[in-house]
Amino acid sequence: MARTALLGRLTWQLAELVEVIAETPHVKTIVFDVPGWPGHRAGQHVDVRLTAEDGYQAERSYSIASASDGTRVALTVQRLEDGEVSPYLTDELRPGDQIELRGPIGGYFVWEPSEGGPLMLVAGGSGIVPLMAMIRTRAAADDDTETRLLYSTRSQDDVIYRGELERLSGNGLTVVHTLTDSQPPGWTSYARRVDAEMLAEVTPAPANRPRFYACGPTPFVEAVAESLVQLGHDPRAIKTERFGPTGG
Amino acid sequence: MTVVSRGFRGRRAADVNPARVPPGQYVTRDFPVLSAGPTPYTALRLWDFSIIGELDQPRVWTWEEFRALPSEEITRDIHCVTKWSKLDTVWRGVAVDTLLEGIETSAEYVTAYSDGGYTTNLPLEDVTGGKAWVVFAYEGQPLAPEHGGPARMLVPQHYFWKSAKWARGLRLQSSDEPGFWETNGYHNYGNPWQEQRYSGD
Amino acid sequence: MNELRLDGNAVAGLLQEVFAVEMTTAIGTCSGCGTAGPVGAAHLYRGAGIVLRCPHCDNVLAKIVKNDSRVWIDLPGIRTLEVTV
């Protein structure tokens, strides 16, 4: 399955929207049925293409949020206020509508249980999406690889998949949040941007040879990667997926 | 076969005079930032602009000298080969005619070169006669680094990849030397009105 | 700070479209500094076309320009490319 997912020319195909899930005030998960979907690996993405009536086209990439599950492919989309594609996906698209997508794409920023750990996931904002696919894949396989997630968001309202992360915690999965802008009363976890000190406290020691996946806005990912290297981690064990300036 | 996405419009400006839009272009109100590499951050005290190559004497201006040259406000439409156009963009800069004033040369071509190694080529006659500037301000503000500041080329009659960001000089040449993109698929001349996007167009 | 920079992984679809195999796990050796690494970890810039740069020395590894019928690929900075097929 993994091999067929990696080879062959990609072709555009029609996917039908079957479900919409509101995750946070600005984030929705849109679930597609994709006929003939070969399955996918956690961390892979799809390219989505929209065409206006006059032929104008826009193309974007979105990380797959779901674990592989037949023809079902879930994307979690953050609505960017001045975005061109995201507001269409979150506000306009209705169950029954079809869009063009191609995938699954990517072989670099992927993880499967057979690769082992300890696994250290660092997410900034919507960067949680491909890492959630890894966490869901791990859970679906009943895998107990030591996994830690450090998840940075502005506030608790911005935490995507909050309930599910709580439910999945345990059995080797530890979730640590940092809320950078506002915290609810009684908040005891981190309340600042991710820095080297926080990473030193949360990540396994270099001697344990953790495998890192960092995803989010470009400045976030670069700061995290730099801190990890300074802490003595092997740069080759740090995989990054930069989402660009806004992270959307 | 492409399928129309019900209700998708994109974020393009409506109510645009079609006579101002070259074939295949869409007008945007944003100013997309595209780049072939990392943004250089050259300190102004280290910055200079040069005219080199086939001329009697190379010319160099420090930032202070460059800013002391006569400059003008320029309003033009710009067209990117990636299909966005932006109308009535307002710049301030020094005309290339001013930089070349009094120069004796037999060169017929120029290569604009930039911090970071980017180059683009043009016929000399397409950067003279009021067709090109080295600009240092956009909409009344100093040109932002992401948009090519401290100074970039502005050559609005060609696709915008010819308006090199982070410009540091012009090399006058007797032979044409295709630049960074012209050697890899983009059209050597790049006239948007004739839709000269790719080699062979 | 270069906020626009992405990873080579962001053009995985384009590369697979062109080469017909997954390319982000291919290992390239930079002709500038000699460092080897996966294409997915290269620094990606979107200009008029796609530019992939060495994450260590910024050397241009590859330029890609594409229209509906043709692709132009320049690999000035990749000395060797090792691909799993």
Summarize the structure.
Chain B has 201 residues and is mainly β.
Q: Care to describe what's here?
A:
The complex is a heterotrimer of chains A (248), B (201) and C (85). By secondary structure, chain A is of the alpha/beta class. Chain A has helices at 2-6, 86-92, 128-140, 162-168, 196-202, 218-230; strands spanning 13-24, 27-33, 45-51, 57-63, 72-78, 98-105, 119-124, 147-153, 173-179, 211-216, 238-242. In chain A, strands 4-3-6-1-2-5 form a six-stranded antiparallel sheet. Chain A has a five-stranded parallel sheet with strand order 9-8-7-10-11, sandwiched between helices. Chain A is globular, with a radius of gyration of 18 Å. In chain B, strands 1, 4, 5, 8, 9 and 10 form a six-stranded mixed sheet that branches. A five-stranded mixed sheet of chain B has the order 3-2-11-6-7. Chain B is built from two helices and eleven strands. Chain B is mainly beta. Helix content of chain B is 5%, strand content 30%. Chain B has helices spanning 63-68, 96-99, and strands spanning 26-27, 48-53, 59-62, 72-79, 84-95, 109-114, 119-123, 133-138, 141-142, 152-154, 167-173. With 85 residues, chain C is mostly beta strands. Chain C contains one helix and eight strands; from the N terminus they run E-H-E-E-E-E-E-E-E. Chain C has one helix at residues 12-19, and strands at 6-7, 27-30, 36-38, 43-46, 50-53, 60-66, 71-74, 78-82. In chain C, the strands form two sheets. Chain C has a five-stranded antiparallel sheet with strand order 1-4-5-6-7, with no helix packed on it. In chain C, a hairpin with a 5-residue loop joins strand 2 and strand 3. The chains are: A alpha/beta (248), B mainly beta (201), C mainly beta (85). Chains in contact: A-B, A-C, B-C. Chain B binds chain C through residues 33-39, 80-82, 117, 146, 159-161, 180-181, 183-186, 197-199, and chain C through 1-2, 4-5, 43, 45-49, 51, 53, 58, 60, 63, 65-67, 70-74.
Q: What's the alpha carbon Rg of chain B, rounded to whole Å? A: 17 Å
Main sheet of chain A? 6 strands, antiparallel
Q: What best-fitting shape of chain B do the alpha-carbon axes yield?
A: globular
CATH top level class name of the largest domain in chain A:
Alpha Beta
CATH class descriptor of chain B:
Alpha Beta
**CATH-defined topology of the largest domain in chain A:** Rossmann fold
Number of domains of chain A: 2
Low-confidence stretches of chain A: 1-6
Alpha carbon gap, first and last residue of chain B = 24 Å
User: In the residues of chain B, how many domains can be counted?
Assistant: 1
Largest interface: A-C, 27 and 25 residues
CATH architecture of the largest domain in chain A: 3-Layer(aba) Sandwich
Order of helices and strands of chain A: HEEEEEHEEHEHEHEHE
**Per CATH, which architecture of chain B?**
Alpha-Beta Complex
Relative helix content of chain A = 10-25%
Outline of chain A, from the CA principal axes? Answer: globular
The mean pLDDT of chain B is 96
